[in-house]
Each structure stands twice: as C-alpha cells, then as structure tokens.
C-alpha cells in the first residue's frame, strides 16, 4: 500500500514536468509556423504562391509537429530516479530517503524488511506533509500553458490571413517587369565583413528601378528592421547604408512586385591584443622581489631577468608569435585555464629587443595592427669609484696623506679597499663596509709616510678598488685610475721674485724637459694600468693589441726623449740617474713588446713595475731650488700635473707682493652638460610633463564633481558622486606614488647635485598632492581642488624650467610633423565644407560633375598625406625611444589612436560613397574622419610642445622682445637726429682732444676689425665689446702710473704698442664699458644699439627672436634685419663715420616695426584673445605706396619739429 502511494506521488510530479515541457514545445512550434506564414504573405499577395493551399499545408504540418511533440513529452521523464533526485533537490529534508525508497521499490516487489518499510513509510509521510508537486512551481506551469495557447492563436491567425490572401489581378500584366526584376544584381550578396564596419547594400536592375523598395534586415535573434532604399540619380540602382554591423544577420530586398532571395552576412573579427601583462623575475643577486606590471607593452629590467608576457586576446587564435626585427620568431603558448584565456611566453632578458606580436586565428586571418612589445635591458653596471680627496700630490717624508673616494653600485657593494705600491712593496687594505647593501658609500684612508720611512724623490702609487656581484652572480672587481704621491725633499725653497712680463716663472730648460718626460711616463703608466684593469676576462678583447701597441710606441718615444735629455746633461750624478731610468724604460718596452706578440697580459704587471721605477728616477732629475712669482693661473692643457700641483702649493704661501690686478677680457664659455646629464634631464622633463597633464585631468574631473555635488538632491546621486570621488582619490594616490619615483630619480648620484633646487620644489609639489589626496579621502572636494591646482601650477613651472635646460634633439622633426598635422587638418576642414556644399546643392544628371571629381582627387591626396605622416611618426618613435621615451610613448599612443579611429578607412569609405553618389552617407563617414584628423593634430601638437615649448608663448615673448628692440632703436634715432653728437667719446671709443681718433687707436681698431672679419660675425660682436673693455681697463691702470712703465696690452691690442697709448686712452675721459654695463645699456634708451655699446646685446636678442618664432618667413625677416644692422655696425667701425640715419630708418627701423606688428598679429590669432587691442591700420603698406607714406610721415614729423 505504501509503495503504491509513493508511486502515485511520483507520478503527479512527473505529469507536471511533462505538461510544462509540452507547453513550451507547442509555443515553439506555433511561433515557428506563424513566422513562416507571415513571411509567405508577400509572396501570396504577389501571386507567386497560392495562399489557401499553402495555409492548409502549413496547418497540417503544424498539427503533425504538435502531435509528435505530445508523444515525445509523454515518453519523457520516465526515470523514477531522476524525478526523485529533483524532489530531493527541492526538499533537502528528505535526506536521501526518497531515493532509497525508490531503489528498494525497483529491486523488490515485496519489501518485507522492517528497515525497508520504515524508509518507505517516512518518504510517504513526507509527501503528505509537503507538496511534492511544487517541484515544478505553479507559476512556471501556468506560463508554459499560456505561452502554448497564445502561440497557437497567433499561428491560427497567421494561417487564416494566408488562407484568405489572394494575388492582385493588376500585377498579372507586370509579369515581364517581375521577370526583369528577378534578374537584379544584389551586392554584396552573401558575404563576410569585419565587425563594427559599415555596409552598403545595392540592387542593380536591368532597365528601370522600382520607385519604392525596402531592405529587410533579420537579426540573429529574429528581430527585424526595414530600411528604405534610395535610387542613385537616374541609374537603375537602389541602395541602403548600414553604418555599423556588429552581429550576423540576413537581409532581403522587397518591392511592391518583387522580392529577392534571402542573403546572409557573417561578421568576423581580426585577432588583436586586448591587454598584455608582464611578470618580472629578477636575478637573485639583485635582492629584488618579483614584479608584475599590468596593462603594459614596455618593460625595463636588469639583464638576466626572466620576463613572462601574458597576452590577453579578443578571441582564441591558432598561433601567436613574437617576431624580432632580424626575423627570429618565438611562439607563444596558451595560458592555463586557472590563469585565464590568452597566450603566454617566457623570455630571458639578455639584451634590448623589440617584438612584433603576430596573431593568426583559426580562419587564417592575421591581426591588422600588430602591437610592438619592447623589453629594454639595463646592464648590471660595475661599481663607480669617484676620488674625492687625494689625486696626484707632492708630499713631504713626514706628511700624512688623506685619501677618500665615493663608491657606488647599482645593487650594493661586496668589498671595498685601497691598494698602493711603495718602493716595490704592494699593500692592500680592505675597508670595513658595514652596510654592503647600501648603494653608495664613502671610504677614506690615511697614509703615514713617516711610518713608511719615506725619502725624498720616492714614489707612492695607489688606487681604490671595489667588488660587486656581476651578472652571473660572480664577484667582480672594479679598480680606479692610478694616482701618484711624490715625496719631495724638505729643503725645497720657495723664494719670492719679480714677475716677468709674461706673468709666469720660466723653469730651466733641463728641468722643463725632465718634467715633460715625467708627465709622458706617467701617461704611459696610466695607459698600462688601464689595459690591465680593463682586461679582466678569460680572453683579451679585440682592442687589446691596439692598446698595447700604442703604449709601446709611447714608451719608445720616451726613450728617445730621454736620450735627447741625457745629451744636454753635464752633471755626472744626473747622467747616472739617466742611465738607471734608461734601463727601466727598456725593460718596460721589452715586456710590452712581449705582451703584444703573445697577445696576453702575463708580462704587463712587470712592465708596469719598470715604468713606475722609471718615473721615480725622473723625479730625481728635478731641480732642488725654485725662484717663483705668484702669477695669475690659467687652465692650460699643455701644463703638467706636477707643475699644477706645485703651483697649488705656491698659492697657499702668503707672498707679500700684491696681485696683478690687470684682467684680460675673455669670453666666458659655459661647459656643455654631458650626454648622460642631458638624457637624465630630458627624462625628468618628460615625466614632469606627464604628471602635470594627469594632475590637470584630475582637477578637471574634480571641478565637475564639485559642481555636481552641490547640485545633487537625492541620496542616490550623492552616493554616485562619492563613488567617483573615491576613484579620483585612487588616481591621486597613483600620481603621488609616481611623484615619489620621480623624486627618487632626481636624488640619484648623477642628478643629486644638478637638481637640488628642483628637487626641493618637487617636495612642495608632493605636499600639495598629498593634501589633495587627504581632502579627497574626507570628501572635501573644494580643498582637494585647491591643493590640486597648486600642484598643477608647480608641475608646470618645473616643466618650463627643465624645458629651458634640455636640448631639443627632435625639434626639427616635431616642428615638421606639427606643420604637417596642421596642414592635414586644414585640408580636412575644406573637404568637409566642400562635401557639405555638395550635399546641400546636389547636381542633377547621370554624370558626375567636376566638383565631385575634385572631391575624389582631394580625398585620395588626403589619404596619401596621412600615410606619409604615419610613416614619419613611426620613424620618430623608433629614434626617440632611447633618448626621449615619453615623447616616443606620446607619439606611439597617437599612432595607435589614429589606427583605432580608422581614419584612413573612413577616408576611403567617403571616397567610395562620393563615387557612388551617396553624399549624405559620405558626409557621416567624413565627419568621423574629420574628428580623427583633428584629434591627431591636437595630440601631435601636445607632443611637440614637450620639445618645442608652447608656440603661442614663444610668439608672445618674440613680440615683446621686438617691441623693446624697436623702442631702443627709435630712441637712438631720435636722439641722434635731434641733438647731434653728444660729444667726444659717444661711441664708446677713445678720441683725442680735437675730436679725432689718434693714429694708434685707428691702427688698433683696424687690427681689431681685421681679426673680427676673420673670425666671423660672432667674433665681430664679441671683440667690439672686448676692445672697449680693454681700453677702459688700460685707462684705469694708467692713471696712477708713469708714462714709462711697462704694461701688458689687452687682447684686442697689438703686442708691440707703445705704453703711451693706454695712458692716452685714459686721459681722453673714456666711459667705462664693462660687459655687464653694456647689457644694462642695451636694455635702456641710452644703450645705442647701432652706434653705442648695446649693439651686441641688441643683436643677440634679435637672434633669440629667430628661435622663438616658427614661421619661416618671420624668421627670415628677423635674420635680414640683423644682417643689415651688422653691416651698418661694421661700416661704422671701419670708416669711423656716423651712420646714415635715414638709411637706418628705411632698412632697419621700419622693417623691425612691421615684423613686430606681424608677430603680434600672429600671436593674437593663435591665442584667440578677442579683447586684445587691434590697430586700425593692420595691413602692411603696399609697395607702390610705401614711398608716399614715408614722405607723409617725414612731412608730418618736420611740421611737428617746427
């Protein structure tokens, strides 16, 4: 009894499962046949099929299908175990009792066991307490019933409509037309297109196209869309345009009396890289943890790092390969399921490589725009040793010599020490490096010569060394240059004497020869030491033989010089010393020769010892007593280090004679920064630019959120704003971390000294960023915006400061690229206007008019120009990657954005649509191309501003500078015309009492002018100011001296001039004209830019204007004005005649004013400042009226003078 009850309960649940399935199957069948009937209605109306017969057939087939569906559902859910499992899932409280009871029922008909009966009874009891039929909810059952019933009604309605539909008798006479239309050519038919691309569907008829037609588009989900097809002019062509296709669909062309077959469009995607992540497993010796960098295509790591690229793709691919430039290919492997979909590859980073990711899908399609992955390898550099105290010195036998050096390594030091050799005895001292992980440390050592029992003319050779861990984990030693400490005798006497005319004490001939030979021998020792130091590998380098040969040639040359010196010596003791030196030199030469022949370093150490002994012997040839004069020191490349050291010691003596206060006028040359320093500054500039841009973006979003927060009314809106503020805080924190990284870069040893001030400014910027982040955490948008604005301003100031310090290596390339992008944008704007005009005023007729043909040609030309610009961008990215990595990144991002916007395809599509006559569709496609070109221009201008600076700011500075230059020149012209010569000496040159130059001055001026003409324009401007300065100094010196006193001439005066000339110059009352005073005078109205002292500064400022403006015409005009001013200045100095001020007005002043006006107009046009004051007569005077205008102003001026 219990088993029957259990089966009954199970049968009720089974019936509900079957009923639900039957309802859904009936609904599906009914909907299918209803759709089929709806699709056949147009054919029935057109008379192509019989509606009544078709409806009967469809009804019969539908009924048969429903009957089959009923039979299938009755046979489904026949397994009691599956029904019991579903009930158990619905009611977990059964605890497997039902499944056990069902199993027992199936195995035994008469289950007489107590346990069996107990299980069945509990299952039955549970069925009474709970409604097992709820395993299939009543709502689902009701929905399936209603769906089946509704779908059946719809099917009946459609079949009824089809049954009563009959053909139109009026269409019987149009059978010929239908036959012609049935031969229409539909393009593209069945095709495959790329996802998110546009599609034009056309139907070309043989004779006359229908007046109305529709494109029926059936999506994959069954939804339908109808588009009206338009006729192209009078051609028998109907067309419809789909702007973007993102999924498969079918389409059909329908007219009143004809319909095409159904075509299918399949959408595909080219494989592409969605995101690439990098995992860096650093070598063990670096002590660095593994690092994962998400969403990057560029990584930088030390050599030996294991790089793992994770490439996430948009679709599964058949193969993925990294292709190097030399053609080497590295395949990628599929990721593990746990890691995610995509491809992965592991690479050992040994040298910098650039990979192109090549993807091929299962249909054989390759990625359209291969992504370039860059793995830059940083070498594990050896330790850097910088001597901070010591060097080549001369010490006494009792002196204590302090030696110190800064030692730095990129991954920490292993051991550091100093080695020295004194009289053949080598000593090595290892310093106590307490913190070996510290990358930079300072070590010092005191050498006590008294404990070494040092004697005069002995030599101590020493060098520092440091050990670090090399790339292979092996200890590597680096050694510094070798330095020498010469032991001088106690009785060396320094006696004060009278200064000779040359300002230096000439040593004796033999002493000079000995010192020169000693200096040569020291260079030979250093050369041998460098070869030993650099050749620390198992095998010698390629340059080894060349270096040893050059050192050997130097040693043989020293032997020859020693022989010449020995021939001049008469002292027996000196001859004996020379003999010992010769033996050591010959021994060193023999060892070097043997090393060169055997191509090994075995004998170099012996050669070095002999060279040091030779050098020690040369020291004994020096004279023991010197008569010296404290003279002015000059940096001369030919002076020996011994003389320099001795002069340094002499400077420390307190000599009684006053300094010679005569100073020579010498041009100060600023040392160019080293290549490494320039590169570091450019790196910092690029990072500052990026940080400033990102801070500006955050501030803009913050300002918008602040306004939205004030206007928010509901709590939901405020919560959304808080969520966005939280995201902005995360961005601000990331910016703060990158600022810390930049500060750490600026604190590196190579940048610490040169960027001290900028680092302090960056610390203030970081504090503002920290305050902004803290305010965002407190949801204080106003305080965060204020702090962010301060940080943005500080970053902009730092950026401008570094831009002025760095060299524009890519200035020409970026200037040309910016001009090309601007030209491309201008042409695109004209194309847009022309296409808009063509769309508003279409031309009738079958043939294309001349304007359409021009549009097609211009579009093709635009595509060619765009392709050329893309090639330039690629070349610049490759060239700037190592020097300007962020410039390369900006250009690379612009290039990728250009490809993603598909500007070239949009232009091609516009050209095809114009050819087909679809002007409206062409305008839509052209609008997208215009936006892409505009964005490209903006991005290139932003990238160019990092190298060239702000073009508008340059124009502004140029306009202000030109205004000042024109004002100075006009004031000089007015003064000279109104007052004449102000007196003698107005031009800043010495004149005699009669107002004429003395013959000596004219001769000196001619000599100065001659040298200026030989040295070129720059030297001319320099020597003009220097000659005046020298004369002034001569006057100052000569005022308190007798006429017979000997004086040294200035640099622009003849060496054999009489001393009286300086005094005569001093007695004429010359004005002092030092360079600093000349610069001040050039900026003031009394600077006299043509006839006075301010010409050089005036010309330099005009030269700066040429660099400020980018327009070639404006730069050429500024150069012409400067050339004319230089010619006028040269004539003034050569002929000693006052300038022709009318000619100056016409040739220099007027063109300068016109240039200033044009630059100001260009600045106003660029900056778009509508409130700027614009002069009424802005246009230049036409050439045919320039003379009349000039006379008008002259008459006006003369009348004012009267």
UniProtKB/TrEMBL annotation:
<feature type="compositionally biased region" description="Low complexity">
    <location>
        <begin position="1015"/>
        <end position="1046"/>
    </location>
</feature>
<feature type="compositionally biased region" description="Basic and acidic residues">
    <location>
        <begin position="999"/>
        <end position="1014"/>
    </location>
</feature>
<feature type="compositionally biased region" description="Basic and acidic residues">
    <location>
        <begin position="760"/>
        <end position="773"/>
    </location>
</feature>
<keyword id="KW-1133">Transmembrane helix</keyword>
<protein>
    <submittedName>
        <fullName>Putative membrane protein</fullName>
    </submittedName>
</protein>
<feature type="compositionally biased region" description="Basic and acidic residues">
    <location>
        <begin position="860"/>
        <end position="875"/>
    </location>
</feature>
<feature type="region of interest" description="Disordered">
    <location>
        <begin position="630"/>
        <end position="657"/>
    </location>
</feature>
<feature type="compositionally biased region" description="Basic and acidic residues">
    <location>
        <begin position="827"/>
        <end position="839"/>
    </location>
</feature>
<keyword id="KW-0472">Membrane</keyword>
<feature type="region of interest" description="Disordered">
    <location>
        <begin position="663"/>
        <end position="682"/>
    </location>
</feature>
<feature type="transmembrane region" description="Helical">
    <location>
        <begin position="21"/>
        <end position="41"/>
    </location>
</feature>
<feature type="region of interest" description="Disordered">
    <location>
        <begin position="744"/>
        <end position="881"/>
    </location>
</feature>
<feature type="coiled-coil region">
    <location>
        <begin position="510"/>
        <end position="562"/>
    </location>
</feature>
<feature type="region of interest" description="Disordered">
    <location>
        <begin position="1166"/>
        <end position="1186"/>
    </location>
</feature>
<keyword id="KW-0175">Coiled coil</keyword>
<feature type="region of interest" description="Disordered">
    <location>
        <begin position="917"/>
        <end position="1122"/>
    </location>
</feature>
<feature type="compositionally biased region" description="Basic and acidic residues">
    <location>
        <begin position="1094"/>
        <end position="1122"/>
    </location>
</feature>
<feature type="transmembrane region" description="Helical">
    <location>
        <begin position="146"/>
        <end position="164"/>
    </location>
</feature>
<keyword id="KW-0812">Transmembrane</keyword>
<feature type="compositionally biased region" description="Polar residues">
    <location>
        <begin position="1065"/>
        <end position="1087"/>
    </location>
</feature>
<feature type="transmembrane region" description="Helical">
    <location>
        <begin position="53"/>
        <end position="72"/>
    </location>
</feature>
<feature type="compositionally biased region" description="Low complexity">
    <location>
        <begin position="632"/>
        <end position="647"/>
    </location>
</feature>
């Amino acid at each position: 009894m219990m088993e029957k009850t259990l089966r009954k309960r199970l049968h009720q649940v089974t019936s509900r499962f079957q009923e639900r399935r039957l309802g859904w199957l009936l609904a599906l069948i009914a909907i299918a046949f209803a759709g089929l009937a709806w699709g056949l209605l147009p054919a029935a109306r057109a008379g192509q099929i019989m509606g009544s017969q078709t409806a009967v057939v469809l009804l019969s087939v539908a009924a048969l299908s429903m009957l089959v569906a009923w039979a299938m559902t009755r046979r489904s859910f026949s397994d009691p175990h599956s029904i019991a499992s579903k009930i158990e899932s619905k009611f977990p409280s059964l605890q497997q009792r039902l499944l056990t009871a069902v199993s027992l029922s199936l195995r035994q008909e008469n289950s007489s066991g107590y346990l069996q009966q107990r299980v069945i009874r509990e299952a039955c009891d549970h069925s009474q307490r709970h409604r097992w039929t709820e395993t299939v909810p009543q709502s689902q059952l009701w929905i399936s019933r209603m769906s089946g019933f509704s779908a059946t009604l719809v099917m009946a309605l459609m079949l009824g409509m089809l049954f009563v539909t009959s053909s139109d008798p009026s269409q019987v006479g149009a059978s010929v037309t239908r036959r012609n239309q049935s031969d229409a050519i539909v393009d593209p038919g069945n095709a495959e297109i790329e996802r998110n691309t546009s599609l034009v569907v056309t139907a070309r008829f043989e004779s006359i196209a229908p007046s109305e037609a529709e494109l029926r588009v059936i999506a994959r989900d069954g939804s339908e869309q109808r588009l009206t097809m338009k006729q192209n002019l009078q051609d028998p062509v109907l067309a419809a345009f789909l702007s973007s296709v993102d999924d498969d669909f079918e389409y059909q062309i329908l007219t009143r009396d004809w319909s095409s077959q159904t075509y299918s469009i399949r959408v595909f995607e080219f494989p592409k890289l969605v995101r690439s992540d990098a995992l860096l497993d650093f070598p063990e010796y670096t002590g660095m943890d593994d690092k994962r960098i998400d969403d990057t295509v560029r990584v930088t790591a030390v050599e030996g790092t294991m790089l793992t690229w994770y490439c996430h793709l948009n679709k599964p691919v058949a193969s993925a390969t990294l292709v190097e430039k030399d053609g080497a290919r590295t395949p990628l492997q599929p990721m593990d399921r746990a890691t995610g979909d995509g491809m992965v590859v592991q690479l050992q980073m040994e040298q910098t490589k650039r990979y192109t990711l090549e993807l091929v899908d299962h249909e054989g399609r390759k990625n359209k725009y291969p992504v370039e992955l860059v793995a830059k390898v940083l070498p594990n550099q050896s330790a850097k040793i910088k001597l901070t105290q010591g060097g080549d010195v001369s010490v006494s036998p009792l002196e204590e010599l302090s030696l110190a050096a800064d030692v730095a390594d990129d991954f920490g030091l292993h051991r550091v020490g100093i080695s020295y050799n004194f009289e053949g005895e080598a000593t090595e001292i290892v310093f106590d490096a307490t913190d070996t992980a510290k990358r930079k440390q300072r070590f010092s050592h005191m050498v006590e010569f008294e404990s070494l029992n040092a004697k005069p003319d002995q030599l101590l050779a020493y060098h520092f060394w440091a050990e670090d861990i090399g790339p292979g984990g092996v200890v590597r030693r680096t050694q510094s240059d070798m330095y020498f400490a010469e032991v001088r005798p106690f009785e060396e006497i320094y006696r004060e004497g009278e200064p000779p005319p040359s300002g230096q004490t000439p040593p004796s001939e033999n002493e000079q020869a000995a010192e020169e030979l000693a200096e040569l021998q020291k260079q030979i020792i250093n050369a041998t030491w460098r070869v030993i130091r650099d050749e620390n590998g198992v095998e010698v380098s390629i340059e080894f033989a060349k270096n040893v040969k050059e050192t050997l040639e130097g040693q043989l040359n020293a032997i020859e010089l020693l022989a010449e010196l020995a021939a001049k010596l008469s002292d027996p003791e000196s001859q004996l010393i020379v003999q010992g030196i010769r033996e050591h030199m010959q021994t060193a030469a023999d060892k070097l020769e043997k090393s060169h022949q055997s191509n090994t370093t075995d004998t170099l150490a012996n050669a070095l010892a002999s060279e040091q002994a030779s050098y020690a012997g040369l020291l004994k040839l020096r004279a023991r007593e010197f008569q010296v004069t404290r003279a002015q020191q000059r940096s001369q490349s030919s002076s020996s280090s011994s003389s320099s050291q001795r002069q340094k010691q002499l400077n420390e003596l307190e000599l009684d004679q006053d300094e010679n206060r005569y100073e020579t006028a010498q041009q100060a040359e600023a040392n160019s920064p080293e290549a490494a320093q320039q590169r570091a500054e450019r790196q910092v500039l690029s990072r500052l630019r990026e940080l400033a841009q990102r801070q500006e973006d955050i501030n803009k979003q913050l300002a918008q959120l602040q306004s939205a927060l004030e206007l928010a009314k509901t709590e939901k809106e405020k919560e959304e704003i808080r969520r966005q503020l939280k995201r902005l805080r995360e961005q601000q924190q990331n910016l703060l971390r990158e600022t810390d990284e930049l500060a750490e870069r600026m604190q590196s040893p190579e940048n610490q000294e040169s960027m001290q001030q900028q680092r302090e400014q960056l610390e203030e910027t970081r504090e503002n960023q920290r305050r902004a982040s803290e305010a965002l955490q407190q949801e204080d948008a106003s305080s965060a915006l204020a702090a962010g604005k301060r940080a943005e301003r500080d970053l902009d100031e730092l950026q401008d400061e570094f831009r002025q310090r760095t060299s524009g290596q890519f200035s020409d390339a970026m200037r040309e690229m910016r001009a090309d992008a601007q030209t491309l944008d201008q042409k695109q704007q004209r194309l847009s206007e022309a296409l808009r005009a063509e769309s508003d005023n279409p031309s009738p007729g079958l043939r294309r008019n001349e304007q359409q043909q021009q549009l097609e040609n211009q579009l093709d030309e635009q595509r060619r120009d765009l392709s050329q610009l893309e090639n330039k961008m690629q070349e610049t990215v490759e060239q700037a990657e190592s020097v300007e990595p962020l410039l390369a990144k900006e250009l690379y991002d612009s290039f990728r954005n250009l490809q993603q916007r598909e500007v070239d395809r949009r232009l091609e599509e516009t050209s095809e649509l114009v050819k087909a006559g679809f002007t409206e569709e062409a305008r839509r496609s052209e609008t997208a191309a215009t936006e892409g070109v505009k964005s490209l221009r903006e991005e290139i201008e932003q990238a160019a501003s990092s190298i060239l600076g702000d073009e508008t700011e340059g124009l502004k500075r140029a306009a202000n500078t030109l205004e000042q230059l024109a004002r100075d020149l006009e004031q000089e012209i007015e003064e000279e015309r109104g007052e004449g010569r102000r007196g003698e000496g107005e031009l800043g040159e010495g004149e005699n009492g009669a107002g004429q130059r003395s013959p000596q001055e004219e001769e000196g001026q001619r000599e100065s002018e001659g040298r200026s003409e030989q040295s070129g324009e720059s030297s001319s401007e320099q020597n003009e100011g220097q000659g005046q300065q020298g004369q002034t100094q001569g006057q100052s010196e000569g005022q308190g001296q007798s006429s017979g006193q000997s004086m040294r001439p200035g640099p622009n005066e003849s060496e054999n001039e009489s001393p009286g000339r300086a005094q005569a110059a001093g007695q004429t009352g010359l004005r002092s004209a030092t360079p600093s005073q000349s610069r001040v005078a050039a900026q003031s109205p009394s600077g006299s830019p043509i006839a006075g002292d301010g010409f050089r500064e005036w010309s330099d400022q005009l030269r700066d204007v040429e660099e400020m403006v980018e327009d070639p015409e404006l730069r050429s005009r500024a150069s012409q004005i400067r050339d004319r001013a230089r010619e006028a200045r040269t004539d003034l100095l050569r002929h000693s005649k006052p300038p022709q001020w009318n000619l100056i007005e016409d040739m220099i002043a007027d063109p300068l004013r016109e240039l200033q006006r044009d630059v100001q107009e260009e600045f106003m046009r660029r900056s778009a400042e509508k409130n700027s004051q614009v002069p009424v007569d802005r246009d230049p005077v036409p050439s045919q009226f320039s003379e009349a205008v000039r006379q008008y102003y002259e008459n006006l001026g003369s009348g004012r003078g009267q």
